[in-house]
Amino acid sequence: MLIDVTTFLIFMGVPSAVTAFCFWAIQRNINKRDASRDETDNARRKNEILLIKCVGASLALGEATGMALKSGTCNGEMSKALEYARQVKHEQKDFLTEQGINNLF
Q1: How much is the pLDDT for 20?
Q2: What is the separation of C-alpha 89 from the centre of its chain, rounded to a whole number of angstroms?
């Protein structure tokens, strides 16, 4: 049985092309998963930052409340701490709402 050069190249090229396509598909799947994981990691990181800010705002508000009770007067510290706590609360609420919507769709 005689096989010419063209037929031989076709027989050698088809398995190579199929293998290359399979590796391309696998690499594409891995890249999509990595992008998704990076997005999730960034969201977790931002959530941790917001939680730390919330704890700080709660401590500032508690400290300002304690100082106001001790001195008997409500000064600017209480107003600043309350405004800071509100700001952080809304920032965290907006972030969690955004994450909820992103996960729905």
Answers
A1: 93
A2: 19
Task: Report the candidate in 99, 96, 63 with the shortest Cα–Cα distance to residue 82.
Answer: 63
Q: How far apart are CA 21 and CA 45, in angstroms?
A: 36
Q: Which residues have C-beta within 8 Å of that of residue 78, sequence separation ≥ 6? A: 64, 65, 67, 68
Contact at 8 Å (CB) between 95 and 50? yes
Q: What pLDDT does 24 receive?
A: 95
Q: What DSSP state is assigned to residue 105?
A: -
**CA 57, 61, 64, 68: dihedral to nearest 10 degrees?**
170
Q: What are 11's two structure tokens?
A: 């027989």
Mean pLDDT of each 10-residue bin along the chain, 105 residues long: 75 86 96 93 90 89 84 80 88 89 79
User: What's the pTM value of the predicted model, to 2 decimals?
Assistant: 0.61
User: Residue 59 corresponds to which tokens in the numbers above?
Assistant: 């401590």
